[in-house]
Amino acid sequence: MTVKLGVDKHVELKQVGYETQGTCILEQIDLHVQKGEFVGLLGPNGSGKSTLLKQVYRTLSPTTGSIFLLEKELGRYQQKQLAKELSAVVQETQIQFDFNVYELVLMGRSPHKSMWENENKHDIALVDQALAQVGLQSMGDRSYLSLSGGEKQRVLLARAIVQETDLLLLDEPTNHLDIHHQLGMLQLLKQQQKSVLAALHDLNLAAMFCDRLYMLEKGVIVCSGTPQEVLRPEILERVYKIQTEVTVHPITGRVNINYMIPDHVSS
Questions:
Q1: DSSP E strands: which ranges in the chain?
Q2: Which domains does the chain have, with CATH numbers?
Q3: pTM for the complete prediction?
């Protein structure tokens, strides 16, 4: 049976489920990202955000359901072909060898090169530009392993940028970053005008940068829509077990979430 998708859908998950050792991690996930759309995945720790992303960048395979990338089933892509279509910045990246920053970012060009092909002027220009965009232009010779957590995160983003894919998958991309670099990274991603699917913890950052949101709880999507539709006090209380006041920022027009201190917590 052939499933026809809308031409504007960059990636779509249809009834995706995932089980491991008899435990259901994801159940009947229906999700899509339109071309050029910034979509956020929200939910508490353990809700399935990272597992969902792993299905898309193919670290894990769905137990049930199907995933389509540009109307083609994800499993039909060869690995190198897939690396030309999507890039990922994930939480548990393990770099075992002591590459310098420049070398690691240059690896993002690998999908576009033959096995023994050297970098060219275009590759070098892309690396230089990406390092400047993430504020690490003076650190090309630094050992990656010597960097702070936030600096490593910015290097991995630069590598994803030079990969020149139209779809970016991000698992907690602002992890380890101070607020200045959190805002800078998300603004940079927005300016790239690519399709983005990102797991996020900070609800206000999600409201500021995302076009649409999916809220997960225990492996199930409980709601989806615009930030105004998803980030409502009753939904946040149900999913996160917190009291909030949700307002609209007078300047940005975006949803703003104020957290209420429980009565039993002293000021």
A1: 9-20, 23-34, 38-42, 64-69, 72-73, 86-89, 167-171, 195-199, 212-217, 220-225, 244-248, 255-259
A2: 9-259 (3.40.50.300)
A3: 0.92
